[in-house]
Amino acid sequence: MTGKTSAAVRAKQQRTHPFHNLEGLVKCVVLLVLISAEVRLDALGRTTAYAAHQSDTPSGAMASQLRPFTVADSIEMTKFVDPPEGAGVVTPRFSPDGTHFLLVTERGRLDSNVRDYSLSIWDAHQLTKAPEQIATFKTSSNRPGIVDAKWLDAEHITLIGENSREIPQVYLINCRSREIQKLTSDPGGVVAYDVSLNRKTVAYYALWSGDQEENQQKEERGFAIKNERLSDLVTGGWRRPPFAYEMYVMDLSTQNIRKVDVGPFQTHHLILSVSPDGKYVVTEQGPFFVPTEWQSYDNRWVKQLAREFQGGQAALRPFGLRQAMLVDAITAEISPLLDAPARLLGVTWASDSRTVYVTGTYLPLNSKVGDSAVLRSSTVLAEVAVPEKQFHLISATPIAEFWGFRRDNSSNAIVTDIFNEGETEIGLSAHVSSVEWRKQGNDWVRRHYLEKSRDVEIRLSESLEQWPRLVRIDPATNAQTTVYDPNPQLKTRRFGHAEVIHWLGKRGESLTGGLVYPAGYTRGKRYPLVIQTHGFSPDQFLVDGPFTTALAAQALANKGIVVLQIGDSPLHEQSEGKLDEGPVTQSQIESAVDYLDNSGVIQRENVGLVGFSATGFDVRNTLIHSKYHFAAATSAEGNDHGYWAYIADGNNGSWAAQSEAPYGGPPWNRNWQAWMDNSISFNYDKFHTPLRLESDGNDFGEVLNEWENFVALKRLHKPVELIYVSHGAHPVVKPWDRLTSQQGNVDWMTFWLNGEEDPDPAKAEQYARWRELRKLQETITTRQPAQHSHHSVANRSGLE
After folding, report:
1. CA 519/CA 506 separation, integer angstroms
2. Dist CA 688 CA 109 (whole Å)
3. Is the CB of residue 92 less than 8 Å from the CB of residue 103?
4. What is the pLDDT of residues 88-100, one digit of tens each?
5. Are 750 and 770 contacting, i.e. CB atoms less than 8 angstroms apart?
6. Alpha-carbon distance values, 259 to 188, 266, 286, 333, 526 (Å)
7. Do residues 699 and 235 touch, judged by C-beta distance below 8 A?
């Protein structure tokens, strides 16, 4: 379902994006500029090339000696995987005794189209000592080379690893002897795992291989369609539907493997937690049965999906609804831990393995442990006895928060980390605080958690203009000293200055974005603008944007283009799944153009838009409904809430329900008008902008999502192109796929906004194709009367 679900996908992709609360609608026609304390209006007047601020950048480095930053530079940067970049203030994973910490890094290789992953161990008390590289993996697939590396004890690390032409398996690494032991050999490949502290049990999920006997019968005799998507039928995915998994438990002493034999299920979220003694596993799966009562929970996604699947018992449990499950690791029997849905499960065990603590789950509505209104509206923190499944409510979770666990060695206390959370399925953002819960008798006492101080404070540090580095924090002065800079080569690259800007939307909403000026910006000169939609984080190094499909902020800045990376509007949460979703983003885009035009920075008639995934719809909706002029646009692997997409994937219940929501129901039963007026499907005649479409997840037939847009605009003789990447991910990750998407988009925007072509002979066919599209656009422009009177500002904008 790549690039499909607006709420869930956007939330998943933006786990590090801060949630901005709207404190009140400000109804004002004056564009009020809310500049942060360190950024003044005169910051609009940079006159020299800007290299990213790094404390150890040589003072003698001259702008003229710096090389322009390119997409290739971004692909070949070394990036932190663990601790993760873009997640705010994060620390590495320390060993239980606090003496060492691990780092996982990734680097793309354009020469071989692989990604190099490295696991290194650092001595926390000898930071000047070179780290020990204890494992490397090189992957040529869309999967990471190293996943979920974690300390099992002070001497052992476990992880999922994958090399080229292999499939991912669970590995156990002895940090002293450097012995690497492969624990699993699953033919489908492991996607999630956990190992018990006593190294007795490993529980894991693997891709479902499909029912081979049934598939053979279907191949030979045909079959009646049930829940298959059209793309599954076209690609053969019906043999093994995407994102379908089965669970296994393995006794490491006997090598005996048991399948949790209740059939496969589909999900984007997998969690496993094995008890310390290896006898039990808590996991999260699609429910075996959906009772009618689940429709009474307040959460709109739970309510909507419970209505869709009520009473259903499908052979392949579908996306959406989830439930906490308990597995007996000896017998591999599974049953619900709680008779209630879960949203984003968190799990930790007591040391005796007889009590498990869970967050992110609801409690049964017939529970006698709390107010019924609270049970309907809130997930909880609860303790559950195992195997009896008797539960005790510790605390309800505020609706706007998500609680996860952190490791703590106390026997009578648990620690929860609190994050801000949107109303969507898995949307969480910055860490807010940590809370210690200490048991006193039968009650739990809450108090602020004071992190145990270490002799050495190590963090991942980055900012809008500083690429991530590992730093040591001086406890007395809070000063940072660089411990490890993985990208010293960037000191020789030229970057456009980046800053946070604030403006008001047309509905009075407060908006935030990251503005990247062209490298070599000259004050008073107006530049083309590219707006990249959604996912801005003010604390994250703004090099491409939040994703690696199509977005390429600094590479565009080095082509003389201003780039604005916008964040989510405070109105987005209210508008998702409704007709107002498109207009909310349209307000962001139009008001940003007005603000930057009034600031004297941009050429307002020379603006490009880039949308990815959920905001592919927002870009296309703006092109149809806005009265502003846009010179070029890209919608990469995006949904469009259109009629064709609804029909193509409507056999999937969760997608059908979501697709109908913006229009108040299906496009029949006298409900055509809402679809005709608002759906992109019936408004292609309103497109007047060259549109680049990208289809990347084509192992799953995702090109079907772009097909209506491509064919409709082509039949209307409008400039459109569709880029097809056979085996791409969402977003793209392989080096050559990234080059196709990101560099292709840089070329697209510089062609339409700057009138420039890359002289590389390898791109000759590309530009020949685009020149033909430009002829089509010139024909449209000649036929089209002046659209909007306010565009008389062209002369003021520096345009002829």
Report:
1. 30
2. 39
3. yes
4. 778 899 999 999 9
5. no
6. 13, 17, 17, 9, 63
7. yes
